[in-house]
Amino acid sequence: MAGATTLTEKMRAALRISSTSGKITEEIEDCILACKADLVNDGIRVIDEEDGLIVRAVTLYCKSEFGYNDKAEAFRRSYDTLKMRLAMSKEYNGDGVLDVSDSDTGNAERMEGHGGMG
Prior knowledge:
Layout: H1 6-14, H2 22-41, H3 52-66, H4 72-88, H5 90-93, H6 105-112
């Protein structure tokens, strides 16, 4: 499980997968990367793995892809709705700034201009 990110472990827990097999970890990480690419493709430029809404988007995406509890369509609709709201938010569309990093500073920088709202 070397190299697994915190987000990978969060998805493993959200998907109720206890196995740490390399193949399963790889599938989870591929799903996370696909979600991030989908978010970027739809205009979300600020993707901070510690931001609650980004984590929720990735969780919904992964659950829809893994067919979690036979509710894949409902999870996909929720993901698409959240993705649309993120894309319309200046906080996430970056106003022309591309920041798709795992840095700890992204969340703090975004919060400065929002008076602690989050």
